[in-house]
Amino acid sequence: MSLVPGIGIAKGMALTLRRFFEPKVTVKYPEDRRDPPHKFRGRLQLLYDEWGTLKCETCFQCAQACPIECIDMGGIDTRGRFHVHWGAPETYGERREESALRRSGRPVPDPAYLPFSPIDLAPVDAILEEFDHDPASMLQILEATQAAYGYLPVAALKRISQRTGAWYAMIYGTASYYSHLRFEPTEATVQAAAVDAHRPPESSYLAAFETALAGAGGGRARKSARA
Amino acid sequence: MTVVGRTWNRLTLPGKVIFTALPILVVLTAGLIVAIAVLGGPVLDILAANLPIVRFVVAVTIILLITIPTAFLIIYMELKVIALMNLRIGPDRIGPFGSLQSVVPGLKVLMKEDFTPTGADPIVFTWAPVVTYLASVMTLLVIPFAPGLFGQDLNLGLLYFFAIGGLSVVGLLMAGWSSYNKYSLLGGLRSAAQVISYEIPLTLSVVGLILLAGTMSLNQIVEHQAGWFTNWYVFQQPLGVLIFFIAATAEANRTPFDLTEADSEIVAGFATEYSGMRFGFFFFAEYVNVFIISALTVTLFFGGWNAPFEWPWPVTLSLDPGSLGIALLILVAIVPLILTIVFAAPIWIASARIKGWQALVGGFILANLFVVAVILAIAYIGLDWVAGLLWFLGKTYVFVFIFVWMRGTLPRVRIDQLMDFAWKWLLPASLLNLFVTATAIVVFKTVRP
């Protein structure tokens, strides 16, 4: 209990009134973007190339430059001879193994990486031959490929990349830009293939027709008369 | 059953009444306007003969209507002022400086489902917000906004105010009792205990003032305080003002005495089960109450619509625009143009980066502000009800600001502290105030009869 009753209330009211006139701390984010802190470097991320291989060369430049020493890494050196590491060894063991696996070029068991289905490459090779392996006529190549397969299989795109020398990413970009190019067979194609697999050969139908028309008499004659 | 029939069956009883009454009212109003326009004289004569009734109907309509923007304004003030006191910016997205922010929850509340819980007493549950809201709105009827600008000049105005203001607790109790919810019931009972306890010091604190003024008519109380601000009753009744303000805060269920809706203890008190516009009515009633209490404090103790000073040289305007004749037309055509150019010129000169059309737009806006200021000044000098209204609203919103300020500062008290304070401190203090005032009056009358 203070000496003067109610002095606490008066003090509190005075405090809020002072705050009322003070500058405000709110940052209106989308309009007002403040500079990030001095040592901020953004999110760290390792990139993969189109074969799912880690692009990192294990050169340690990033770890050396890191101002707050948050990078530790390990792998095989660029000539594939020695295991090298940076940082405390107990922190990178698993990542070293994964990195080595990716750099070895063997398929990596990555659930995000789609299963690779092999196809008959002869039609693609014929198309590429026709267009003289020229990446400048990529759209025509892709259209012809789609006409041959009904869609653009990933294996065919990789074959095109390999033969023409164009980056897979560029080909993928071209293919995904045009709405008439598709990466999956249409539902109609799938159904037609399924029906095709179960249908008896055409000759049996024709033979049945012939028999029926011959039995009725004058089938061919009527048709020619109309024509 | 048709769509109309289904919708009709879903309405509650007040809804049915309102949906029947509203078209009738619209048709009657339109008919009245058409009748005045077509027949003219005779209709106006009938209206003039029944002036008190017409005046009453108009006053009630206006008072009902102005409560909505008042509540919106106070809600916005509360959002903004408390935000500024918390070093935040507060609403700034909707409208200039976020001033339309409070309209959005208002509309939202209109669109929400109007839910009645199982086990609730539907009739009492439906009418509780109406009672609370009307109790708030009806008290506005006797408050003098400006000379000649009041609903009714009752000679028992102050008594009427406290009587009707006390009705709001009935609404809160109805809400608490009919909700079929323990928290609601607790909130309702708390509000009953609190409001009834604080009504005693509230009423006793103004008895001294009634003795001084010799009347209970709010208009006459205001007229007694005319002249310099030293005539205000606040200087003769300082203790009375303090008691009145504290007790009125408790009456309006405002922080630090908002025990009835203490969300940390009893969810939302009596309003727990309410949703949609029924909750909106409680919400509005709370903010209208804030306005009313501020208005009453100003009326009783701070001179009402009187200016705090007397202008020693009386100013009169001898302006007759009709005498100008054809020159008036030319003035009306030319003055806006000239004003725009006059205000645009300094902007254009000030900086080479400002383009001509930008300067013109700025000049147009400034010229408009200037014209509004001039019109307001002329109205202030020429019409005493405009001057009175400005002073009254200005003073009232100072007190609204104090209420908001208190809400931004003070924590909620405990229920036993609340009751202790009412009975052990405020009641003796108000009795003391009454005795001292009465003694002083007797002494003065004996000394200077």
Describe the model.
- The complex is a heterodimer of chains A (227) and B (449).
- With 227 residues, chain A is mostly helical.
- Chain A is 48% helix and 4% strand.
- Chain A has helices at residues 7-21, 61-65, 93-104, 122-130, 138-149, 154-164, 168-177, 187-198, 202-216, 219-226, and strands at 73-76, 83-86.
- Chain A is elongated, with a radius of gyration of 35 Å.
- The termini of chain A are far apart.
- Chain B has 449 residues and is mainly alpha-helical.
- Chain B has 16 helices and no strands.
- The radius of gyration of chain B is 26 Å and the shape is globular.
- The interface between A and B is medium-sized, with 13 and 13 residues.
How is the biggest beta sheet of chain B arranged? none
Order of helices and strands of chain A, N to C? HHEEHHHHHHHH
Helix fraction of chain A, binned, reads 40-55%
Task: Please give the order of strands in the largest beta sheet of chain A.
Answer: 1-2
Number of helices of chain A: 10
Helices and strands of chain B, in order, run as HHHHHHHHHHHHHHHH
How many DSSP H or I helices of chain B? 16
What oligomeric state is this?
heterodimer
Name the beta content range of chain A: under 5%
User: Radius of gyration of chain A in whole Å, from Cα?
Assistant: 35 Å
How far from one another are the termini of chain B? 80 Å
| General form of chain B | globular
Largest beta sheet of chain A, briefly? 2 strands, antiparallel
Judging from the principal axes of the Cα atoms, what is the shape of chain A? elongated
